[in-house]
Amino acid sequence: MPTDLPTERAVRKPGTMELDPAGEGIALDETPRLIASNKVEGTAVYDGTGRHLGSVHNFMVDKVSGQVAYAVLAFGGFLGLGENRHPLPWRALRYSTELGGYVVDIDPGALAGAPSHGPGEDSFADPDYQKQLEDYYGSRFQAA
Amino acid sequence: MPTDLPTERAVRKPGTMELDPAGEGIALDETPRLIASNKVEGTAVYDGTGRHLGSVHNFMVDKVSGQVAYAVLAFGGFLGLGENRHPLPWRALRYSTELGGYVVDIDPGALAGAPSHGPGEDSFADPDYQKQLEDYYGSRFQAA
Questions:
Q1: Which of A15, A12, A35, A13 is nearest to A100 (CA)?
Q2: Which of A17, A37, A63 shows the shortest C-beta gap to B33?
Q3: Rounded CA gap, A40 and A75, in Å?
Q4: Residues B43 and B34: beta-carbon distance below 8 Å
Q5: The whole model's pTM is what?
Q6: Domain limits at A1?
Q7: Which among A2, A45, B103, B119 has the fewest CB atoms less than 10 Å away?
């Protein structure tokens, strides 16, 4: 398991979805500019120290603008985060080619205190949920 | 199978990803504004007369901007379109609450003549592929 902090060179600009352009078998669902929706789903997520946290469960897209808004992370009970889904502003994720996944500079404690929902909960149907997320993460992850 | 042309009221603005807000079990992955990536995948696609064409295989997202660029449609050999994947500009799709899927105002002949790729082909790795798509569809589907 990778433990080193990803180098600056290998870390993509915050908010980009780029996966490893040198990886195997990526041509089908990745171009220099585009990536397939089902390739983002399931991609590993690491913290800033390279520790594996979980994976991207899916992501939320603005229906009107077609803009990706949140990555919904699944941690599978790791680090006491439970089975809950944790939506993070898309801009909080950057891609590390060394780790082969997304990196989020946030410690598990801050994730544990963030708004989250169970696999069977419909929190996104509540208009306040997005506001809670922005209130919680807004100061941590500024728009690029 | 629905055969009526969807009414104006029930048809969403072109380029929007909205699914049926009155449908069952949608609260989990749909809000008034956001929709989950894995809910878009697999959604049915109809032509302008309400004829079922196929479904959304996945969609391509701009890695830098996080903007949805193409819906990749699968037709499963229907109407002689073969097993190929047919990328359509996202703006070409609109959602019909009556049909419970996306509507594309294009006839199968025009789809058959459009750039497409096999399930195992890596056409999106070719920078010319997007240009071919825009050349083909640009005049048919203007940006909103």
A1: A12
A2: A63
A3: 16
A4: no
A5: 0.73
A6: 1-34
A7: B119
* Shortest CA distance from B64: residue in chain A: A16
Q: Quick one: pLDDT at residue B5?
A: 37
Give the ipTM. 0.74
Total domain count, chain B:
2
Which of B72, B142, B144, B143 minimizes the C-alpha distance to B111? B72
Query: Is residue A144 one of the residues assigned to a domain?
Result: no
Are both A77 and A127 inside the same structural domain?
yes
Q: DSSP string of B39-103?
A: HHTT-EEEETTS-EEEEEEEEEEETTT-BEEEEEEE-TTGGG-TT-EEEEEGGGEEEETTTTEEE
Residues on chain A touching B64 (C-beta within 8 angstroms): 13, 15-18, 33
B58 in the same domain as B91: yes
Q: Are B73 and B130 in contact (CB under 8 A)?
A: no
Among B16, B30, B60, the residue with its CB nearest the CB of A34 is B60
Contact B61 A68 (CB under 8 A): yes
| E strand intervals along chain A | 34-36, 44-47, 52-62, 68-74, 85-89, 93-96, 101-104
* C-beta separation of B71 from A38 below 8 A: no
The string of pLDDT tens digits covering residues A69-113 is 999 999 877 666 778 899 999 888 888 878 888 999 887 788 888
pLDDT exceeds cutoff 50 at B129: yes
Q: Which helix (H) or strand (E) holds B34?
A: strand B34-36
| CA angle B5–B6–B7, rounded 5-degree value | 110
> How far is Cα A46 from Cα A96, in angstroms, rounded to an integer?
9
Residue A115: alpha-carbon gap to chain centroid: 15
What tokens appear for B136 in the block?
Answer: 């083909």
Same domain, A90 and A117: yes
